[in-house]
Every structure is written in C-alpha cells, then in structure tokens.
Known about the structure:
Layout: H1 2-29, H2 42-69, E1 86-91, E2 96-102, E3 108-112, E4 115-121, H3 125-130, E5 138-143, E6 146-155
Parallel strand pairs: 2-4
Antiparallel strand pairs: 1-2, 1-6, 3-4, 5-6
Amino acid sequence: MLQQQVLQRLSEDLLQAEEAVREAHATATHEENIAENKYDTLGLEAAYLATGQARRAAAIRQALARWRQFRPLPYDAGKGIQLGALVCLVDAEDRQQQLFLGPDGGSMQLVSGAQIVQVISTDAPLGRALLGRCEGDEVSVQVAPKRLQFEVLRVL
C-alpha cells in the first residue's frame, strides 16, 4: 500500500514537472522574449529554468522506474532491516516515528491509517544507519551539531 502511494505521488510530481518544463520552454521561445539588448534576459532566464525543470522531470522518471521495479521482501530478523522495511523508531523524549525504507524518494510523507510515515532511502544518513539493525537496537546519526539517538521498536 505504501509503495502504491509513493508511485501515485511521484506520478503527480512528474505531471507537474512536465507542465513546468512546457511553460518555461514556451516562455523561453516566445517571440516577445527575444533579447533586444544585453540587459534583456527574460528569454535566457526562462531557458535556464526550462533546463532545470527538465532535469527535475528526468530525476522523477528515474525514481518512478526504481519504485516500479522495487519488490520489498518480508522482514527477516536474521538479515535485519533492509529495503522495504517499515520501521518504528522512538527517540530519547519517547516520540515515535514511522519510516519506510525505499529505493528513492526521501522527504516524502505518507499516511497509513492514522500514522504519518516518512519515506527515506539508504542514501540518507538514518537510512544507512538502519540497514542490518533489528528490533531493540540503538541507532544514532549526526545531524548538524547534534547527535540523534533512536531505538528500533518494531520492524514490519
């Protein structure tokens, strides 16, 4: 279910990015935006924007492809946390958070029942730190000036 939500969100993001590419390209190539002097840079700026938006769309397409090919395996306590695991962490203040370890797409939040689930990848420091860990293990990551510590409560 979480994987389907990620695919849906990425598909929506791709549509928005492709529309932004079309708009920026249209602005860059519109006849009214032809530079008349060296200070007339609207067309050039729109071309740079179109290039950036095209790169963003390409990155989303790659993420979509990885998520479509992704086949999460059931949690195996012998191997510890792997891609596809749904992990519940608790911090020192007894706050819990749910994480879904996926192949890509950090900074995406999903809803599962009444819970907020943060999607992270193994490229993220916390994602790397979780790999191979099991329920009851301590995990710590350095974030800016402080070190955050968590305990793995549950893994699904």
